[in-house]
Amino acid sequence: MAKRSAPEVNAGSMADIAFLLLIFFLVTTTIETDSGISRKLPPWQPEEQEPPVIKQRNIFTVLVNSNNELLVEDESMEIGELREAAVEFLDNGGGQGDEACSFCQGAKDPGSSVNPQKAIISLVNNRGTEYGTYIAVQNELVAAYNQLRDREAQRMYGTTFTKMESDYNDPRYTGDKDALKEKIDVISDMIPQKLSEAEPTS
Amino acid sequence: MSKFKKKKSGDLPAISTASLPDIVFMLLFFFMVATVMRDNTLMIQNNLPFADQVEKLDKKDLIMYIYAGKPSQRYQAKYGTEARIQLNDKFASVEEVQQFIYAERESKREELVPYLTTALKVDEETNMGLVSDIKQELRKAEALKINYTTKKGEAGNNID
To answer: Is the CB of residue A37 less than 8 Å away from at least one CB of chain B?
Structure first.
């Protein structure tokens, strides 16, 4: 019996099929990494507790009403000025003796905060406030903290705080993570993020 | 003479396309691997606000998503235009958030539970009343790590 060789399959249209699939995946792909502002909620406390006494000078109140207008320390303000005002408040360093702030570069106004460890930013929303405005305010306040932390990190370690944090969270980072964590903790202790959110007013 | 002519008639040799499928397959595999199919269909308008002080959220399996916003156009006849919460594939009330968190925790391995983060994907026009109701429920369910998912951009864009 004569040996019949199998006829060769024409592979010319393989490219077309592959293109078809390729275009399908190209269209359906959404390469998205979610990013956003991370926060930690305070734990639930069912019974009303007596709030700790805090000096008025150490509280920076930000009120947002239902028309998305800001009232900062009893003065109306545009969102663009909020970051600067928050930095000014945190960096004031008006304390003396035990409460003195060794690294603050602020105006040392006796009516403003004593040092960043004591300074608290209080944010009060209205139930009618738009979420977009709320995020903008959060963003500006976080930016104020980051700005100060970056400055101190630059002074002490020659790098920025945000860079150190992203390195720490990067699994491919090859440096010493424990040392990095220590540095991050030092800075976070110097300038803790004390952002208090009250129940929204209606 | 004839020899001379023969050389000219050679033209350009056709470029071999035999390796084209290989190249296309390579691209195809890349996109197949990189594709993440959306696991829930959005029934709400979800125009996220902008922010620039953002942190990345990796480890997709450790994130619980809560969506909120106005129902999208085709659901408006049935559900109205009031902002609502969407969990998985359906609308939910505020009280169901706790249940949802417990169910999500149940479905994850025990050692991963403390690392779970809740991502709030909320439309920028939603009122804070709804958002803070969700936050209260999360506090009750002890899901304290949250992330407000945003688009990257200048925060001033949120206010027009």
So the answer is: yes
Establish if A80 belongs to a structural domain: yes
Chain A positions in Cβ-Cβ contact with residue B115 (cut-off 8 Å): none
A135, B124 Cβ separation under 8 angstroms: yes
Each domain of chain B, given as residue ranges in start order, spans: 50-154
Query: Which of A196, A193, A178, A99 is CA-nearest to residue A147?
Result: A193
Q: Considering only CB atoms, which chain A residues are within 8 Å of B159?
A: 68, 79, 132-133, 136
A130 found inside a domain = yes
Question: In tens digits, what is the pLDDT along chain A, a chain of 202 residues?
Answer: 566 788 877 777 877 888 888 888 888 776 666 788 888 888 887 777 777 788 888 888 888 888 888 888 888 888 888 888 888 888 887 777 777 777 878 777 777 888 888 888 888 888 888 888 888 888 888 888 888 889 888 888 888 888 888 888 777 788 888 888 888 888 888 888 888 888 777 6
Number of domains making up chain A:
1
Q: What is the ipTM of this complex?
A: 0.73
What's the topology of domain B50-154?
Nucleotidyltransferase; domain 5 (3.30.420)
CA distance A1 to chain B (A): 34
User: CA-CA distance, B125 to A131, in Å (whole number)?
Assistant: 6
